[in-house]
Write a structure and sequence with these properties.
Distance between the termini: 14 Å
Number of helices: 2
Radius of gyration: 13 Å
Shape: elongated
Largest sheet: 3 strands, antiparallel
Structural class: alpha+beta
Helix content: 25-40%
């Protein structure tokens, strides 16, 4: 989405995505948007470490 993540999650491919974006993607495809290979499962896991890093980033450094 090229937007700062608000609710980052990790998919079965090991990549972090914005929850809303990957959830929408998974309604259309079970393939990884990054790798193009079938995901072994469509379960998503919260990524609290990435969320904390994003929230701690100085807001003036983030794209508007």
């Amino acid at each position: 989405t090229h937007e700062v993540m608000v609710d980052p999650v990790v998919a079965a491919d090991g990549v972090s995505y914005e929850r809303a974006a990957i959830t929408e993607w998974l309604t259309k495809s079970n393939d990884s948007p990054m790798h193009g290979l079938a995901l072994s499962c469509t379960e998503l896991y919260s990524n609290p470490v990435l969320k904390e890093i994003i929230e701690g980033w100085p807001s003036e450094s983030l794209p508007k």
